[in-house]
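Aim 2, interim progress: modelling of the AHG-bound target.
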Amino acid sequence: MANSFGITVSRHIMDSQRLHPEATGELSGLLSELIVAAKTISAEVNMAGLADILGMSGKTNIQGEKVKKLDEFANNTIKRRMASCGYICVMTSEEEADIIPVADGCEGKYTLAFDPLDGSSNIDVNVSIGTIFSIHRRKSADKPPSQGDEADLLQKGSAQIAAGYIIYGSCTMMVFSTGEGVHGFTLDPSVGEFYLSHPDMKIPEKSKYYSVNEGNRRYWADGVRSYIDYLKEEDKATGRPYSARYIGSLVSDFHRNLITGGVFIYPCDSKDPTKPYGKLRLLYEAAPLAFIVEQAGGRAITDDGVRITDIIPDSLHQRVPLVIGSKHDVDMFEKFMNGKKEKK
Ligand code: AHG
Ligand code: MN
Ligand code: MN
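Predicted structure of the complex, ligand included:
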C-alpha cells in the first residue's frame, strides 16, 4: 500500500530550498518541470506494449545508433517542456547533434544535459530503462537573459548543481542529488506523485557484484581482464567469487549497484576503432551518475584512474571509459590497472 501521507518530491525540494535563504526557487522550478516530463514518459513507457510506440523510428542519431520510437518520444517530451520552462538557457541531448536553444524570452540561468531514454536496446523487451539528467549553472550567471552556448554545457561534473535519473522499472523511481546526499522517490501511479521512499541513499562500501559486458573480453586491456578474473576466484575471506549482474541499461545496472553495492565497468576496448574510449557518454551518462555515486559514498573513475567529475568535456558527445560503484571495488580496479594487485 502506498504511503500517500509521505513526503512528496515537491515538498522535499521546497524543504531543501528553505535551508538556503539565498535560493531564488529557480532550481526547484526546473526540477518540478523535469518531474512532469518524467511522469509523461513513464506513462508512455507503461503503455508501450499497447500503443504503437515500440520499434524503430526509422532515424539514426548523432551516435550512429538507430533511434527507437520511445527514444524520440522521450527526447521530444523533455525538449518541448524544458525549452519554455524559463529556468534554462540551453540544452543538449544524447539524441541530437547540436545544442538545443530555448524559446525566446524564456532564458534562465541553468543548463540541462540529458539522455532521454537510456537502455534503448531493452525498450522492446520489457526490461527497465531510464532518463538521466545533469544540471549546471550557466558559465556567466550574471549575463543578461540570453541564449546559452556550447561553452555553458562543457563544464566538469563536479560543477553540477544537480543530477539524477528516473528509472522506469517494476515501479518508476526518481533518484537525484542537489549536492546534499542522494534521495530516491517512488511514483504512486494512482495519485501521480513521487513519494520519498529512499532517503539519504548510501552505496555499500564493498560489494559482491560486478556488471560488465563480458562479450567484449577479447577487446579489453590486460588489467581489466585480470581484475575480472580476480573477482571470479574463490576466496571466502574477501567474499569472492563475486556474482555477475549485467542488464545492458546503464541506469538499471547503476541503480541496482547503488542499492545492493556493486561495480559497473565499461572500459576502453579495441572493438570499434571509432570508439576507442568505450561507449558511454560523459555529459549524458558518466558525469551525472558519477555525481550521484560520489554523493552516495562511492567512486567513479576512467579506466586509467581519472576522477570522472574532474574531466572538462571537450565536446558534447565525448565518450569516456567508466568504472563506477562501491568504493572498495573501484579502488581494487585501480590497483589492477596500476599493476599493483593486493588481495584484500
Ligand atoms: P543508450 O540506450 O542511451 O544509447 O545507452 C546504451 C548504453 C547503456 O545504457 C548500457 O550500459 C550500454 O549501452 C550497453 O552497451 P553494450 O550493449 O555494449 O553492453
Ligand atoms: Mn544511454
Ligand atoms: Mn539514450
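The chain has two domains: 9-198, 209-337. The pocket of AHG (ligand 1) is lined by residues 65, 94, 115, 118-120, 213, 248-250, 279 (CB under 6 Å).
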